[in-house]
């Protein structure tokens, strides 16, 4: 039930993170529904080496920055980017909502 989904309100600025994946998958395959207020930003330190994120915009627009690469993503668009570098998601021009999948795995070799 929606009322039972754990949320994080103190990570980032002006955003609410609903944790959709089960706790035992933390650090492996994580799924989030993130709502941003106008001007909301979620800045993250690098995850484990080889980690990637896939973000789909449900409402509004966001800017995604991964390392030195910056992209504006609109409603209905999806971005895939490295999450093993400093990365950030920021609402662009108003409130926004995104669906985020984080896949973490160590690369070998």
Protein model, in words:
The protein is mostly beta strands and 109 residues long. The chain is 0% helix and 58% strand. It contains no helices and 9 strands. It has strands spanning 7-8, 13-19, 29-44, 52-59, 61-66, 69-74, 78-82, 87-91, 96-103. Strands 1, 2, 3, 4, 5, 6, 7, 8 and 9 form a 9-stranded antiparallel beta sheet that branches. Strand 5 and strand 6 form a beta hairpin. The protein is globular. The mean pLDDT is 90.
- Spans of at least 5 consecutive residues whose pLDDT stays below 50 are none
What is the mean predicted local confidence, pLDDT?
A: 90
Q: What is the H/E order? A: EEEEEEEEE
What structural class is derived from the secondary structure elements?
mainly beta
Number of helices: 0
The portion of residues assigned to helices is under 10%
Taking all Cα atoms into account, the compactness measure Rg is 13 Å
- Biggest sheet, in brief? 9 strands, antiparallel
N-to-C CA distance:
42 Å
Strand content: over 45%
- What's the total count of β strands? 9
Q: Which of globular, elongated, flat, extended, rod-shaped describes the shape?
A: globular
């Amino acid at each position: 039930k929606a009322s039972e989904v754990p949320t994080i309100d103190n990570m980032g600025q002006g955003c609410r993170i609903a944790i959709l994946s089960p706790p035992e998958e933390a650090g492996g395959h994580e799924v989030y529904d993130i709502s941003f207020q106008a001007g909301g930003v979620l800045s993250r330190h690098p995850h484990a080496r080889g980690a990637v994120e896939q973000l789909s915009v449900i409402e509004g627009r966001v800017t995604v920055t991964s390392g030195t690469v910056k992209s504006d993503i609109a409603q209905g668009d999806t971005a895939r980017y490295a999450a093993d570098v400093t990365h950030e998601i920021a609402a662009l021009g108003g409130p926004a909502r995104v669906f985020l999948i984080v896949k973490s795995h160590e690369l070998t070799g």
